[in-house]
Amino acid sequence: MSQPRIVIIGSGWAGFYLAEYLSTTAYAVTVVSPRRTSAYTPLLASAACGLFNFYLAEEPVRSKHRKCRFIKANVLGVDFESRSVHCAPAFEDDEVVSNEMFDLEYDYLVLAPGCIPNTFNTPGVAENALFMKNVSDAMALRKLLFDLLEKASLPNCPVERKRELLHVAIVGGGPTGVEITAELDDLAHRELKDLYPEVAEYLHISIYDVAPNILGSYDQKLHEYANEALLRRNIAIETNSRIEKADKHALHIKDKGRVPYGMLLWVTGNKAVPLVMDLSVKKTEKGLIRILTDSHLRVLKSKGSDEVYDNVFALGDAADIEGSSLPTTAE
Q1: How far is the C-alpha of 299 from the C-alpha of 276, rounded, in Å?
Q2: Could you give the angle at the alpha carbon of 250 between the alpha carbons of 248 and 255, nearest 5°?
Q3: If DSSP codes are grouped into helix, strand and coil, which group holds residue 329?
Q4: Is residue 181 a contact partner of residue 205, using CB atoms and an 8 Å limit?
Q5: What is the pLDDT of residues 19-65, one digit of tens each?
Q6: Which distant-in-sequence residues (6+ apart) come within 8 Å of 321 by Cβ?
Q7: In a 3-state reduction of DSSP, which class is residue 44?
Q8: What angle do CA 199, 203, 208 make, to 5 degrees?
Q9: How far is CA 164 from CA 16, 62, 114, 221, 319, in A?
Q10: What is the 3-state secondary structure (H, E, C) of 177-211?
Q11: Crossing angle of helices 175-187/220-232, nearest 10°?
Q12: Coil vs helix vs strand at 59
């Protein structure tokens, strides 16, 4: 008798953890994800700033000790009646392969696709900003930072240009924004002042948020403490800032005008992936759009119904239990 087929969509905290602990003797487990690794997101800022090697901040899905199947693809849709998922290979640099669609059948389906950064449709952000969702993002941040330091160190680089190149603009005053701000400032004082003595003094960090306070969703004492700690480090805290657009070299902020930067890091929170938006399932109506489940993580069919899809489950940031909402954090 063949093993029941479990298809897990996503290789983040929820999907990866499940794949690691499901019995591959009892089930045929397949993980479908555009990323072949699972990132330890709390470690990304530290890895980007060189506290440890990048490989310590992620775990590969494929392992000789983990007997599950992995498919590098995006899931475009789910047919609940035929019990199949429609997929597209996830290879952005190969248009031919990326358009060779295929379907996977399942006996059990687990929806754990996670979320993507929310740019709030701000013009220019997707094209010009860095994000902090995976190890590739952390690597890109570190590479760009040192490229900017080298450019600023050129003998024909004027002082004003040095200041522009070495302005790190961080948009988002939540936990990720505050953490990466502190890590970058530590890097500047711990390492860069000795490696780049001619230009390290020009490196300055600004943190922008539309809210009146950083860490605004937390206890007042916490955001007051964070505010004071960052100010002591000479970090520019620009709250009540409404970003209108971003171009390759500058932010455009309402009432403040054009603000040049060398690096733009966008960490303003998450939004639902396209798959979640397209699924015909019951979803939350306010805030982050998430798949609603019952207390057993079974996916609810539609608004106004308590019916669930047979053998279809959802968990992680893309899901929420109806009547028992949980925050989107695994740390």
Answers
A1: 12
A2: 145
A3: coil
A4: yes
A5: 999 999 999 999 999 999 999 988 999 999 988 889 899 999 998 88
A6: 292, 293, 294, 295, 297
A7: helix
A8: 165
A9: 41, 43, 35, 34, 41
A10: HHHHHHHHHHHHHHHHHHHCCCCHHHCEEEEECCC
A11: 20
A12: strand
Length of the chain: 331
Could you tell me what percentage of the chain is helix, strand and coil, using 3-state DSSP and rounding each to the nearest 5?
A: 30, 30, 40
Provide the β-strand partners of residue 74.
Answer: 88
Per the listing, tokens 């899905």 go with 61
Q: Which residue has the tokens 């230009």?
A: 199
Q: Specify burial of residue 99 (Cβ count, 10 A radius: 0-12, 13-18, 19+).
A: exposed
CA angle 171, 92, 141 (to 5 degrees): 30
What confidence tens digit (pLDDT) does each residue in 186-239 have? Answer: 999 889 999 999 999 999 999 999 999 999 888 999 989 999 999 999 999 999
SS3 assignment, position 219: coil
| Dihedral sign from CA coordinates of 330, 213, 185, 225 | negative
**CA 43: distance to chain centroid?**
12
- Residues with Cβ within 8 Å of 31's Cβ and at least 6 positions away in sequence, in order, are 8, 10, 11, 15, 16, 19, 61, 68, 69, 70, 71
